[in-house]
Fold each of these.
Amino acid sequence: MLEDRLPYLIVAPAVLILLLVGLFPLIYSLIVSFQRITMTENDTSFVGLLNYAELFRDTRLWASLGHTAIITAVALPLELLVGFLMAQLFIDRMPGRQIFVALLVLPTVISPIVAGATWRLMFDVRFGPIGQILSFFAGEPVRILWTVNPSYVYPAIIICEVWQWSPFMFLLLLAALSNVDQSQLEAAEIDGASYLRVLRAIILPAIAPVVAVACLIRGLDLVRIFDIIWALTEGGPGSMTETISLYTYVQGFSQFETSYTAAISFLVIALLTVITTLVLKRMELAR
Amino acid sequence: MRVGKLPARKARILAVRYLGAGVVTLLFLFPVYWLFMISFKTPDEIYHVPPLWIPGQIQFSNYYVLFRDGDVLAILNSLIVSGVSSGIAIVLGTLCAYSLARFGTGGENLAMWIISQRMIPPIAVVFPIFLIYVYLGLVDGYFGLILLYTAFNLPYVIRMMRGYIVDVPLELEESALVDGLNRWEVIWKVVFPMVRPGLMATSVFTFVFAWNDFLFALVLTRTEVITFPVMLTHYFGGQSNFWAKIAAMSVLGTLPIFVAVSVMQRYLVRGISLGAVKG
């Protein structure tokens, strides 16, 4: 009878597509990572862990992991902090709040490539407004090559990243903060507790689960960061801002190191899996 | 005395909050303003030192150039690829989610596996997918890109829709079944109206995800189905950035998102927060 098979029939198409496009490439990639296919050679004999051993000697790979870690470690707390401050500003009812929230969401929904391109125009040393504004406050011409100067490329990337994703944190935290038990807050106010004490004792524990999930989502996105950097610096100057995603791309599509790229991919997957598992474990412990 | 002072104090606090809100909104929207404004400037105004904050007049020649040179085809490609792929992902994903939620098909394992598919970093699969697509001749075609975006949106749709469907009271469906409706009618006439807000929010997000994707489109398109983010990066070239084109193309590529987001505004906030809270 059709009715009996219906549960499987309506699951099948989705699962089939996921197997085909999600799982199959991974298995294929896993096999390739044990072979030795490069741009010039199509050597499909198995070489064991050779490609994986190569990973440990690849200084550019570890440098790119370092760049990724720096960007994540700086941008994530900043986004969280800015998002929290924004949420605090809008937590109490005020007429027109909806309009502000709607406008503030815009950076988050823009394509990261557009965000990067926009900030590239903003940062331009001659025709961009950033230099002009800084010059105004400094009282003398400020000429910073944001996307080229080694001391400023990271700030440039992080400014763009924080601009785009703080509103995301803001939305989540606004929802979390409005769920904080009002009666507890009022009781604390009557007792004359200071804001910092209320924050530590009531607000933070209440929003902790949402903060953890938000950090996990954004953290995983930051580890994979590609688009914004591609649009702003293309990994440069040199390979100074090359993240792990950019490096994998270069190995795959510029050097055509097929097998080695596959090995890097599995390193990335392993890293992300470890991070996710650790974070989820900690979240469960906290509960 | 104190009672009389309170409203004044409240009004002051409100004024300060509006000031803060205004400043924050200006800060966050200024780059968007700058982008839109450049797209209306003439070349002389774009390359003016010091930068001009307001164009002399609103003129559309930068957009005209995009239409004349056929660059807007990239927007059309994006619309086709994102629209079709999110449509398919929504239909297949919602059906799958219904089965998972109501029949527990495949148990918790299948559900976990599907949701974990979303954790796979695109950079880790884009290269093998590229090799397979080259082998199958799917590079630079609509089908390949649509298939890929469908696959990458499915786990999200399934996770979100499963959450919404679980919230539909089971009794409603049971009484509809008793009344003689078959499963399809139950899904269509009972469940669908109940999950409509969730479905709206999920649709917008799947569309936005596909629309904003850069990496897959960069790798899997050449000339025929170039999407708008890839087209945009073609304008960055060494010393001579085509600023007018970058700005106008960015605006064209951002407008559909703005329209979708503002039309669906009331569903979105709930969608974002629910997605995060439910993990």
Note: Chain B has a mean pLDDT of 87.
Amino acid sequence: MNQAINVEQLNSALSSLRTVRSNVSLVFETLSNGLRADHGEDGKDKFLMELQELLYIVSNNLRDLEQTVNALPIPVPFNLGNTTYLSQETTQDRQALYTQLVNSYKWTDKIHEYSSFAQTLLSQNSLKRSYINSGSTKRRGKLQSNHNVAPLQVDNVINNIDRSYNDMKITISRPFASNAVVSINLSHVLKAVVAFKGLLMEWVMVKGYGETLDLWTESRHHVFRKVTESAHAAMLHFYSPTLPELAVRSFMTWLHSYVNLFSDPCKKCGCHLHHTSLLPPAWRDFRTLEPFHDECKQ
Amino acid sequence: MKRGKATIICEVKNGSYSQYPVPENKTGTYVIELLTKRILALGASQQGQFLVDCESYLSHPQMGTTKTVHILHNSEQPASVFSILESGTKNIHVIADGLFDLLMMKLSQHYTSKKQTKIESKGPRFELGDFCVKLGSVTMNQNFKGILVEVEYRPCVMANAVWGLLREFLQGLLGPTVPVQPTQHLMSRMNEIYTPIDTIYQYLEHFSAYRKVTGMRNN
Amino acid sequence: MSAANLAPITATDSLSQALKANIIPNQEYLLQGSVLDSAVEVLLHRLRGLCDNVDAGTETFDDQEVCFSLRDPNQQAAPLMLRVRKALDARDMPFQLRYIGQPDLGDKSRPTVVRSSLDIACSGMLIEFLNELGCRIEFEYSVKGYMFRKGRMKITVSKVFKISQSSMSPEPISQSYLVELSVLAPQGQDAIGEDMRAFADQLRPLVQLDKIDYKRLGHMS
């Protein structure tokens, strides 16, 4: 709407400019022609009169022009950077650059548009693992610091968990700068190693009692490879950037339930071994902590 | 000390195999073949053969109360010699390297081998997931004595925790009517960490039982 | 059937094969000597210059040895001697059970003492086992010192201590160090004796390594 008005104003301003130009040229034409035959005997006075008239028209036109130009909104000057000089480009093949410039501008514009759509969609469908649903900016600032917690605080959290179990020994080491790598000995059943980033769990590896523990090599036993899989699922399930301490504690409680990995049968089929995989129940329900075979858990 | 994995050894008695009529004179091979077929059907793969042998030495009568030294070898631990000294009610074991056999030769004045009771369990060895199953036919002095099935569950080191699971596996393999009982030695070590010597003790207990049964079973 | 599924050979078979091939190191070639405490540093310095295993500093050991005897039931032969060594500085290492036969000095031309020997690594209840087997403890001592290696030769420079009953520091048996040069080899490799003699000659100004006849020592005391 605004733009349409502007164009009309601009048009009238341009037409009044044209009128000024044509009338001015008329003045000069009359002047250059000088006295003509039709001016008659006292042509001198007549000529001066005609000239005065013409000048009067020009000054009127000029006033009109000034009026329309003043009515135009004064454009804020764009900072076009080097593109400003494109208008002064004389070489033929470089003049095409302007179209490309306009195209890329259109693309950027679209991206901007789509991302704003995406933003609206994301805020409507909250995803668990994103920060978006976590509310005010003030809180968000605090959240991000969970990646970067003082080692002492991490130690406190983990040591507290360690103290609450008699049959689960948790030890902290820091082989990679300030991030904790926690090794867990669960009775004589299994060993696990958890890599932390701040207070957030990043990686879990579960192995047998007699095996050597490291972050990357898988256990040689099928059952512990299965438990590692479950532990990864649990790590993602319990992931909660707003309450990292709760996440760690829930994960440890869940892991502790593996103390009966070999001795308790599956809650659903009642057997120790699943008939096809020949594995013991290597899955623990997240809430009830009951043992299930991977195949029986649905 | 080297850690092991929970293992049970179960004797297959022909009596409990009533639903599978065993032809005359083919006892051992027939049952082994039958069990081999079953375990292959479960998806196992054969990984070589195994051998556990036992030779017993008796002390010289001049040395006072008779003592027995059992020398056992297990192909799972090929560089070791397991030696168990039976003295009254006590059993004392030593795990040594291969040269211990030479020492026993040096002791031949003091301890003499009862060659006719040399006994061994030998047969195919299968791997099935985390299980290792060994089907051994027991022979003493070339005479067939019976069949011992050894099931090892490698991830677990405590017999107590894994007992139910092992029994379920064995009964699945041998049939639900087969009684699966821990040996006396295993009973006393249920809550300890299992080591290779525990397997040896289990074999010794079964071997001693076979030796007591004189003569060969004819079924 | 694939090769992997062949029946394993019995331990007895593999042992008799090893015996036939004569690959079991059951002979010990031995030279012994001693140096005074005051002279030991010079000897150690010389050995550090001559031996192989000195890159990471001198290897030390601290062992306790118990010597058992098993009497012959027919009272005819000499008692059988068995020695048990336990490393006090590496407690998780297995025991070393050692059978040593009668030393054979031979004539003057033989460069070293040769005695039959079996070194067996053992774990488990070894002391109890030997007691129940019928062995009697003869004596025990602790030995602490340095171990060097030069090719197949082993050189130990060690001090023998009495086992102290209380928690007091053990008392040394003498004011000198025992120096032993030994090689374990299968039967019939007598050439090694010459190598040992040559090496002993290199140490000659500092320590005299010789064939020691214990029977004669026994007579002297």
Note: The CA atoms of residues 21 and 78 of chain B lie 37 Å apart.
